[in-house]
Amino acid sequence: MCGDAGCTGITTEDCLNCVARAEFVYKPGDPDCKYCQCVAGWTGDDCTKKCDLTCHVCSDPGVGLDVTPSDCVSCTDHAEMVGGACQCLPYWDGPNCSHYTGDCNSLCNGCNGPTAADCDYCIVHASWRAGFCTCDYPYAGEKCNDRLDQQAPTPAQQ
């Protein structure tokens, strides 16, 4: 897994640089000891085998074998390990489980996830503030339909 700069010994801890799609990782508790490890999404002795898109990290199935979802060690966002393979969570789809198919938050006009922070655009009377859509003053309610400055008259006012 050592790169073209070579190494000072025979282990991955002796690399002067790493191959493409690998990076130096420090051993826990030993800041002086680093080794080459494939970056997320790649595996194999030289990090040339691409993991299944549902995998965050995968294991190498061996020489001449393709990597499958059952070789996943950990899954991508919006996927979970089921029966030894990564599968998309409910309402998530696509090759890497990144396409949201569920209902949008009521403050969203289009979305890429279920919360007000996942809105493509905010609905009328709502704006993007502090990382999510929220009703503009004086509007409130589930769809920003209620006006706070237009209160119903009390019985004494009628």
SSE map:
Elements (H helix, E strand, L loop, with lengths): L21 E6 L2 E9 L3 E2 L5 E2 L4 E4 L13 E4 L3 E4 L2 E4 L3 E2 L5 E2 L25 E4 L2 E4 L3 E2 L5 E2 L11
Antiparallel strand pairs: 1-2, 3-4, 5-6, 7-8, 9-10, 11-12, 13-14
Note down, in words, how this protein is organized.
There is one protein chain. By secondary structure, this protein is mainly beta. Among the domains are: 42-99, no CATH class; 103-149, no CATH class. Helices cover 0% and strands 32% of the residues. It has no helices and 14 strands. The chain has strands spanning 22-27, 30-38, 42-43, 49-50, 55-58, 72-75, 79-82, 85-88, 92-93, 99-100, 126-129, 132-135, 139-140, 146-147. The strands form seven sheets. Strands 1-2 form a two-stranded antiparallel sheet. Strands 3-4 form a two-stranded antiparallel sheet. A hairpin with a 5-residue loop joins strand 9 and strand 10.
